[in-house]
Amino acid sequence: MTQRSMLAGQTPTVVVRASGSVTVEGWESDRIQAAADHRWGLQIERRQATDIGRERARAAIGDRVLFDVSFDNPFNRSKRLMKHLQAEVIEVQLGGDGQVRVPLNSELIVYAGRDAEVRRIQGRVTATSGRDLKLQGVRVLVHAAAGGDLDIDCATLAGNELKFGAGRDLRFYVHELTDAKVIIKDLGNYWEALLGDGRTKIKLSAGGDVTLVTDQEVKAQPPYYLLGNIERPASRADQSTASAETPQQN
Length: 250
Fold this sequence. Notes:
Helix content is 6%, strand content 58%. By secondary structure, it is mainly β.
């Protein structure tokens, strides 16, 4: 296993790009630490946010430069995700699978070609994956999308109009969401759920089932007055009991 680390400070902006699967976790340190399950394709470097997603084309004959141009790649997903950033970022690139630790208060952008899991991040998080994506213990979620299952468990959302999508099942739990209109399109159904006065507008789409997790009163909306999968969050007492009842392995 190959490892790299870099001093980052307490509140860095970190971009993680993995060709394979990646786990990104916050930890109580001012360093970024990355480990890859292979011997090639692991890089950590400081870059200007405006340079992420830019391509360069250059040709020369001896000392004579025929052309040297750089341009924005319109198909580069990282460029689109970072359009609001202007400062320096730290970019972690993994050619395959790996694990990354970042300071707890990082602003984090993750792209994984396969599966991704993001845990314990107190800053803003944007994440997308080609297969399954799981977000747990995230403070502020900006955007998330997955080609497979999408499991969202965060405290709050950034913005008043948001969209989240999954190729298969989508589980959506935002702890502090008390005033939102949630428009849901899942396998074979379209339904709307109103929490409070519906100030925040959220669209959820999935190729499988969507499950809305909330402790708020949910009101069905016209014209169909239809509701889909709705769950109540597990209480701390329930979680403690479940942990206590789990048999220990010898």
